[in-house]
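In this supplementary section we document a worked example of the pipeline. Step one takes a protein sequence of length 328 as its only input; no multiple sequence alignment statistics are reported here. Step two produces a three-dimensional model, which step three serialises into structure tokens for compact storage. The input and output of this example are shown verbatim.
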Amino acid sequence: MKTTNLAIIFILIVVPFYLIMDIRVSDQKTVNRLEKQYSAALHTAVQDAAYALNQNENQDKEASYQSTKFFNANKDAAIETFWKTMYLNFGSGSDQISQAVLESFVPVIAVTDYNGFHLYAFTEYMDTSGQKVFKHAWKPEKPYAYSDQAGNSINFTLDSYVKVYQASTQTWVEGYREELEGLTDVPLLNNAKLFDEVRRNTIVKSVQKDVAYFINKHNTFATRLGSYYQFKLPLIPNEEWVNSINDVGIMAFIQGLPVGHQFYNNYAFGSGRILKKNVVYGAVDESTGLKFYYRSNYPLNLRVLETFTSEKDAAAAGYMPTDSLNKR
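The serialised model returned by step three reads:
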């Protein structure tokens, strides 16, 4: 969508939205309910997207890797699934204008792949008519790169597999750290504990740096749309960052969504190895107002309101099993 058109649409939709929300959510109880609903929607979208990362059409590419952490992440399927779930649970449906406004509150999505990471962020370009257009697009993959004081370079992965450039011999070698130990003049490969610390720190800092850059850059686009919210990387505990790189996964950020006199900001991490049976979704059938719970992607247009860790908790909150829906 053209920048000028989207800016006008944004103002026409979001400004009244601010005014209406200011009237409707004056009490904190309603604000808390909306934030809970938005959080459930975001986490559900990320979990669905993480699950979609496994939809690999090129399994043959995995044959050369013995790592249990390697699989060819299908990032396009993940993004498509993410937006599909977000549109449904935020009430955007098939309305492209509403979808575009919702997308403007998501500055960046990151996929941590086995040997590098991908960022999905707003990009500006000229269309065929010479008009400036901006929308989310994939940035080039970036490796988990590290270099030491001797000029050696290491491309890390999510486990101990590495590609190493030895400065002294000007040659590349690759393999698991355990296999290369004592065979190169790269000191880091000879210390398992230090290697893992440096590897994790390198991956986390690489992703953090680029995510922060594109979230900050999103302010340029948001300003053109008439938003005065200041997008920035949220404060995330280091433990969460470290846990996020234990496997191939996806992370998404949503910021600046108006809720009363404040803004809704959140983030979510999802692992590509996620077992969706661990999550119980509480959703509503908007045609009847009835609420149901289920453990996996249900093939009907139910809008997720919240998540639970067990069917018992969902039932206690007033949700019925989807078996009841099938019998209706």
